[in-house]
Amino acid sequence: MSLVGIELFEEEFVVARGNAEVHWFVRQNDAWIHCASYPGARSERLDAPSGTVYRTRVELELPAKTRLMRVESRPGHPARKSAVEHLLQPRISLKRDTRRSYYLVGPRGTLLESE
Q1: What is the number of domains present in the chain?
Q2: What predicted TM-score, i.e. pTM, was given to this entire model?
Q3: Using CA atoms, how far apart are residues 111 and 105, in angstroms rounded to an integer?
Q4: What does the angle CA 76 – CA 23 – CA 14 come to, to the nearest 5 degrees?
């Protein structure tokens, strides 16, 4: 089975109400493996521009049609409170909104959207 090279970028950056994070996972048998933990993965920490906590490039050699999952996590929206509730209740960290997107590795290393 021939392998194709791909690059994935993981990062954390500043957004309203906190930080957003992007992580990638590779499907291996019945499990999702973090891309940097996949056998043969090469990681490189990149310079982080303003507003970016970190940015990492992960290079992988994968068979075409390998499934990938991109997970993006952002701070959720705060619940509406009255002025009194806001002053009397302790500040609780916001729930996070998480979005998962699925891809297949194309024959030339392109990522094709999948379900």
Answers
A1: 1
A2: 0.82
A3: 5
A4: 50
